[in-house]
Amino acid sequence: MDQHLPSQELGAIAPIVTTLLDGNVSSDDLSKVSSLFKGISNQVSAVTDFIQSILKKVENGESKTSKGISFLDVKYQLLLSYVIDLTHLMLMKSEGKKLEGDKTIERLVETRTVLEKMRPVDMKIRYQVDKLIKTATSGEIAPNDPRRFKPNPDNLVSKLQQEDSEEEGDDEDDAEDKGPQKYVPPKVSAMHFDGDLTVQEKKDRLIEKAKRRALSSSLIRELRDQYNEEPEEIAERGTAPTRKFHEAAKHQQEFEEGNFIRLPVTRKQKNLKRKGETMTGLEELTKFDNISALVDDSKGEERDTPAKKKSKVSSRVS
Amino acid sequence: MGDAAVTIRTRKFMTNRLLYRRQMIVDVYHPGKATVAKTEIRERLGTMYKTTPDVIFCFGFKTQFGGGKTTGFALIYDTLDYAKKYEPKYRLARHGLYEVKKPSRKQRKERKNRQKKVRGTAKTKVGAGKK
């Protein structure tokens, strides 16, 4: 496409036309003007021929105009209107009319500002547009080729001294660049890793946990309430195990209702439920919490109790 | 078609266009009575949603502790054809729309014993040659 627009020639003619109107005419200027006019007419005829051939192609359906870039659409419409306004100004000048307060000048200024604002955007998408043109002409590259959207570091450096130099376009990570990696199968559920701890550290942790549990037992709580000077608070909260049970039941119910499914009941759950319904609470009256962790014991290592198994209600639904 | 004491309410109603059905959670209040039968729930839902009860499939009814309230699920299909296509076979069998055909127990056990004598993919071929 002829980038050498006739507008350049028009711009060259404008000062000469003004000098003509001032009255200082020289033969040099006249010859220049006539040569420029000839050049314009040649160019205009060439451009019209070119555009007509393109129009014919579009009418015949050889080249499709459906999937164009709307940004470039706007750009050429603006350029067209700019050129038309310029020619209007030329016309007015050559007829000897005043340009003062003409709406054309406002339009020209507006178009020019918009074009200036579009320029940095144009710079940024230049890479994408070039790629598109290349694929359109060559028609080779597959649409899913991730190398098409590789980021170009040269585009990061802004050539227009603008503030934002962000990248546009898709940056798909090229995972294939890392090379073949060892396949690690996914583990079913996340487990806590305690391989870094020594045996002694694990024992210490057990003792700490037992101490914490003993501190929050009912015995110690009652002692604390007895000797505490703060006002007594009565809250209907339920003990920690009942709260856990209720939370697990609520979690299961939400899962079942959300997924329209009934989860099967395990034998352990059935037994627990049966125990809860019967009158087995009498045994609990004489069972107090284990506060041996707080007692100063030198035989702590012999009383290694196995870790309590967590209930599997929540692990089942998740 | 039902005592005034039995109340049916639906919750979480959703129209599932992908499977051509409407799905909901059904709450049945039946104080002082035993758990309501699924057939009666289907009829009630049929009148509520203006369909015939044969495209309604209910399942998963659980009575809360102490009685009086039961919660379950219900699916209402657009047509019986879609129901036959998308419903699992055991639920169709509950309505009598599907029969599981399996050979008699003795023959199944004989086939298993014949398969035990063969290794690998030939096991499938053994079953075909039933004597």
From TrEMBL, chain A:
Biased amino acid composition, Acidic residues: 163-176
Pfam families on file: Sas10_Utp3
Domain of life: Eukaryota
Compositional bias per record (Basic and acidic residues), positions renumbered to this chain: 296-307
UniProt-annotated stretches for the region Disordered: 138-188, 293-318
GO cellular component: small-subunit processome
A Gene Ontology BP annotation from the UniProt entry: maturation of SSU-rRNA from tricistronic rRNA transcript (SSU-rRNA, 5.8S rRNA, LSU-rRNA)
Biased composition (Basic residues): 308-318
Entry similarity comment: Belongs to the SAS10 family.
Protein name: Putative neuroguidin isoform X2
